[in-house]
# Entry
Amino acid sequence: GTFAAFPLWYGTMFSAFYLAFLIVLAGLMARGVSFEYRGKLDDPNWRNTWRWAMTVGSALVPFLIGMALGDLFSGLPIDRNHEYTAAFWNLFTGYGVWTGLTVVALCLLSGATFLTLKTTGDMHDRTHRLTRELSYIAGALVVGFAIWSGVIGGGVVPNIFGVVAVVAVLVSATLAATRREGATFAAAALGMGATVSTIFAHLYSNVMVSSTNSAYNVTISNASSSSYALTVMTVVAGIFAPLVLLYQGWSYHVFRSRLAAPRTEVQRPGVGTVEPSRRIGPEPASPAPQPGG
# Structure
């Protein structure tokens, strides 16, 4: 979508973030493969290896994407040909790293609040406690992010999206204490959306800032595709984006039930079968004694 609508922006981003995006792909692959391979062998070392692959891969993706979003706003060395002129390590700007950590914290908070909606028992209680702790960490990072964004944007007051992000995360911390799990999840999701929106609201009408010279900034006007291409993409997006949202909503509706712990198996005295410890309906009658038994 970015390539079709803003080809110059796409080309400049990949000249800067190519290696970072490759690491994102590697993280996604490690994460996806770990779900399948973790249970292939009943060996603690094997399972622990794939558990770490899942954890590291899942953390790298939001961190690097968040860092890239922060770098769009804070600025990178881009020349007159709109090409990145520094090394990979120059991507680790202070604001970019802070934004990456903020996005990771928001992803953790969102995941924890979602688990409180989908689980029961001990897992639910553990994630509920974790939600409260993560909400405070995410809140501190979002506050710092909003203030830093305002400073880079030319003032100390964040824009409206920054204010919404801070309020949403702080509200999620308050709601988590009251066990209003649906509202907590909604507040965490709103905080994440507002955080990302803060960057693009500050960027407008740029889409990528050059720290070399402001004349080399990538803007909406110089990066956009032709009017015809944008018109076609708008029509296609107007048709298919609602369909995707409806499909996602239906998927969440189908899988709306909470996940319960598996039933434990118990040996019934006097019966040579193993049955679940929980049963719906009357208990079965004991077998009648056989002749000669």
About this structure: The longest helix spans residues 121-152. Strands lie at 206-208, 218-219, 265-267, 274-276. The two ends are 77 Å apart (CA to CA). The longest strand covers residues 206-208.
